[in-house]
């Protein structure tokens, strides 16, 4: 998995979640952040201007970055990630979390032939709704990066976000995942934020 974010003249690439007590080393304006032998991130300083914020790295750009890593004496560890991170999804089913009175474990369809498990505390979770799945590698408008993990000991592969968490213009100020109209798009399609900003929500 590869997550990329650009700010000022620094391109930040994340390969794994942040870890406490991590170390870093810098060579030729590239900083490697790591713990033990695992690389967590690379920060490239002095990169030509890119769109600010989360970006999608092309195959060509990754090849260029890996060449910079080699020239600096690092391993070429960056791998192209073609998967969309914000997708239209469908809640197939859910059960109560075995170790929580407010969480549920949902089976969520993210394409015609793939489902994932997501632990959710959304009060409006129900079977048969169309929503937005924020999959591992997604960078939320708040800057939070979504990683696979566990919630109260149960595997969770992403999150189902509220309109406000998605930064949508008409988002209500209340908890609860976004519920998309049936005709918004097909399950598995990339969520269209421009179209999402046109949605009206009942306050």
Describe the structure concisely for a colleague:
This protein has 203 residues and is mainly beta.
Write structural notes for this entry.
The chain is mainly β. The protein has two domains: 3-72, no CATH class; 86-196, OB fold (Dihydrolipoamide Acetyltransferase, E2P) (Beta Barrel), CATH 2.40.50.140. It has two helices and 13 strands; from the N terminus they run ββββββαβββββββα. The protein has a six-stranded antiparallel sheet with strand order 3-4-5-2-1-6, covered by helices on one side. A hairpin with a 2-residue loop joins β1 (3-7) and β2 (10-14). It starts with a strand and ends in a 7-residue tail after the last helix. Pfam families: DUF4479, tRNA_bind. Keywords: RNA-binding, tRNA-binding. InterPro entries: DUF4479, NA-bd_OB-fold, tRNA-bd_dom, tRNA_bind_bactPheRS, YtpR-like_sf. Residues 80-192 form the TRNA-binding domain.
Keywords:
single chain; 203 residues; mainly beta; OB fold (Dihydrolipoamide Acetyltransferase, E2P); 2 domains; six-stranded antiparallel β-sheet; five-stranded antiparallel β-sheet; 34% strand; tRNA-bd_dom; tRNA-binding domain-containing protein; NA-bd_OB-fold
Order of helices and strands: EEEEEEHEEEEEEEH
**CATH top level assignment of the largest domain:** Mainly Beta
Q: Counting H and I runs of at least 4 residues, what is the number of helices? A: 2
Q: What Rg, in angstroms, do the CA atoms define? A: 19 Å
Q: What would CATH call the homologous superfamily of the largest domain?
A: Nucleic acid-binding proteins
What is the CATH architecture assignment of the largest domain?
Beta Barrel
Indicate the percent of residues in helices: under 10%
- Average per-residue pLDDT, rounded, comes to 91
Shape: globular
| Number of E-type strands | 13
Regions with little confidence, pLDDT below 50 for 5+ residues: none
Number of domains: 2
Distance between the termini: 37 Å
Strand ordering within the main sheet:
3-4-5-2-1-6
Let me know the largest β-sheet.
6 strands, antiparallel
CATH topology grouping of the largest domain: OB fold (Dihydrolipoamide Acetyltransferase, E2P)
Strand content: 25-35%
């Amino acid at each position: 998995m590869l997550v990329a974010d650009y700010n000022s003249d620094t391109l930040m690439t994340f390969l794994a979640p942040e870890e406490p007590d991590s170390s870093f080393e810098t060579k030729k304006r590239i900083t490697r952040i790591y713990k033990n032998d695992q690389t967590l991130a690379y920060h490239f300083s002095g990169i030509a201007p890119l769109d600010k914020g989360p970006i999608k790295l092309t195959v060509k750009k990754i090849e260029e970055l890996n060449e910079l890593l080699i020239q600096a004496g690092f391993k070429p560890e960056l791998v192209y990630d073609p998967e969309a991170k914000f997708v239209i999804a469908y809640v197939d089913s859910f059960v109560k979390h075995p170790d929580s009175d407010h969480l549920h474990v949902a089976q969520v369809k993210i394409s015609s032939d793939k489902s994932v498990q997501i632990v959710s505390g959304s009060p409006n979770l129900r079977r048969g709704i169309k929503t937005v799945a924020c999959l591992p590698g997604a960078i939320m408008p708040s800057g939070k990066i979504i990683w696979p993990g566990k919630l109260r000991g149960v595997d969770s592969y992403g999150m189902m976000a509220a309109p406000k968490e998605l930064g949508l213009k008409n988002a209500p100020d209340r908890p609860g995942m976004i519920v998309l109209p049936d005709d918004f798009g097909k399950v598995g399609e990339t969520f269209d934020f421009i179209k999402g900003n046109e949605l009206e929500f009942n306050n």
